Structures are given as C-alpha cells and as structure tokens.
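QA checklist item 7 of 12: single-chain prediction sanity check.
[x] sequence parsed
[x] length recorded as 282
[x] structure emitted
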Amino acid sequence: MFAAVARLAVAAVVASATAGPAAASQFIDRGATGASLSVTPAGALVTYRAGGATKRVLATGAVNARAPNGSVPQVEFRIASAPSLPGAGCARYDGPSLRWRVAACKARDGSYWALQSWPRLLPNFGNSPRSLEQSARELRLSHWSGPLAVLEIKSDWAWRRFDHIYGRLTYLGKPVHGFRTDRYGAPLDGYGRNIYFDTFSSRYGRGWKRENSFVAHRPTGVFCYMIRPGGFGQRYRATVIGPGVTPDIVWEGAEPGLFDPAREAEANAEQSAMRDRLCRPN
C-alpha cells in the first residue's frame, strides 16, 4: 500500500496545467487538422491546417534522446517555417505501434518520424475545459531509431480501499527524470516528464476524463499516485511525452478490483525494491 507523500499530491494537482520546456516529442501546434508528414534530405516537413490557414514547418537537428544530464541540454528540433520542398517522400512505416498516431514514416537511413496528437492540457479531476488551450489536441513530432521509452505501471490499493498505481519510466534501461521542478512539481528542464493520468467511466462522467498528472522522480524515474474516489474508473490510462524527441507512449489497464491481501503484499514488495524516497507505505 504505497502512496505519494502529501507535497507530491499537491504538486500533481497543478502540474498538468503548466506547460513545460520544448525538448521532447516536440510540440508543433494546437488544433491542427489534416496533418501530413514527409521526409526530405534536410529533415521532416510537416504540413497541416490551423487557424484557417495551411502551414508547413521543417524540423531538423535531433534524433532519439540523451540520458538525464544536468550539464547538457536534452536534444530538440530546430523548427522553421518552410515552403513545399522537392524530393520529399515517406516510406511505409514498419515501426512499433503508436497510440495517438496521426502519421508516421521510415526515412532512408532507417530512422522513423511520427506525428501524434492528444489533449495534454485537459483540466484535472474531470473538469470541463475552460479555454481553447485546455481542450485542443497538441500535434507533436518525434524522430528515433531503436527502442522506445518504457512506461511500466501496475495497480494496487492504498489503505485497502483506494485505487493506487505505481511504476517507473525508463529509456534504454535508464530512469527518465528531470533536475528541476517549480513549486507545483512541473518540470523546468528538458529532461523532466509528467505522466498524464486518465480515468474511464468514473463519477466524473462517461468516457475518458483527466484525473491528474504527476512527475517521474529523480533519480529513479519512479512515480506513485493514489486515485481520488471520484476518479475510480473501470479502466485507467497514462500518457507521457517521450524523452528527447522520441514518441509519446501510453499505458492502459483495468482498475485493480476488490482488495486482495496476497496481491497487495506482492505489490508492496515490488515497490519497496524500487527504493524511491517519495513513495512510502501506508
């Protein structure tokens, strides 16, 4: 029965409403429609419509991700407006399955590019969006070769009666974490990552609703979260922006069900082995 310490729970309440640094599967625009992707010798050309106009941007200069390093910035694209470019193309995508996928392709060098779109800034606790920024889907671009990040999540109970999740975010076997957050827990560097957690068919209403977001901890990449009773759902889902310029990844699973002492003991042992100071037994 593990739960985040009180100050982490407070931080999580605000974090999803705060925009973080750009370095990540990179933000392109909000409310984009008709997005397409092609690869040129210079980089990736993204074409879409937003604000009643057709837009084209060229992304260059980044692939994959660096391991957390407080002295070196995380990789990020250079983004510039661009006209249609000759020689643009896109080979058939044969990479790993991607949630929120809009378009994806394989470059001549064997690396992959992808566009994903999802509503990152939904209000917490099932509240309805109060601005275009909160309701709009974000169009995000990634470029990678090799394995994706791994978002490992399991569920159990806190105090025998509250649904609870715990897990770890890693990339190439190393924890993903940042070095600085604001007083609410929102990342202030290109390495930190919030996990955006949604609940399905809860008291908040039908369908998927945002429960909260919380940061992966330094230096372990571990996180834990006790779900509010109003957010108890039939299923849970978590989305995290990929480290560096790798794709955004998603976990989805069922609620833990009725309390099971044997299963809880096993979960507690797993969490103890994670050795994270911000998650403690209750």
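[x] summary fact logged: The helical segments are 6-15, 132-135, 261-274.
[ ] second reviewer sign-off
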